[in-house]
Amino acid sequence: MIAVPEWMAAAGTDLAGIGSAIGAANAAAAGNIEAVLAAGADEVSAAVAAVFGAHAQSYQTVSAQAAVFHDQFVRALTAGAGSYAAAEAASAASITSPLLNAINAPFVAATGRPLIGNGANGANGTGAVGAAGGAGGWLYGNGGAGGSGVIGGAGGAAGLFGSGG
To answer: Which pTM does this prediction carry?
Structure first.
């Protein structure tokens, strides 16, 4: 099974639109099917009109139940998309963080700078000159932004691939 959160969210939006269209059609038809008039003044015409009226009431009841089910389904689908997205993000973070820590540890110990990763932003309000931003990773990473002060702090250096802070 493949669950793509973006596709699930789009399907929820599409289904909500379909539900709105069905609701509008049912509302438009309600007046026409609830007031079924007898074709004539005889008993048979009255009985046929009563049968059609009973079917119309049954249809409206079933239609209302289907609308409630449809709304619940759309909400469940939309919530499921959010749950899948959150689970994927948590899973990626739990895999990426320990892996990057293992890769970066020797570089941080030797140079004070990771191989891969962004530099920390400099602290604000540290006096006349804001604190400098941290350097990005040697190979990949953006330098941290310099902190604010009367004179802004220097941005951190970028890695081989990245932007300075």
So the answer is: 0.51
Structure tokens at 92: 């990626």
Query: If you count them, how many residues does the chain have?
Result: 165
Q: What CATH class is the domain 5-99?
A: mainly alpha
Positive or negative: CA dihedral 63, 67, 73, 77:
positive
| Domain definitions of the chain by residue range | 5-99, 113-165
pLDDT digits (tens, 9 = 90+) for 127-153: 556 677 778 788 887 877 777 765 656
CA–CA separation, 8 vs 151, rounded Å? 49
22-32 residue pLDDT tens? 999 888 877 77
Q: What span, in angstroms and rounded, lies between the C-alpha atoms of 153 and 122?
A: 7
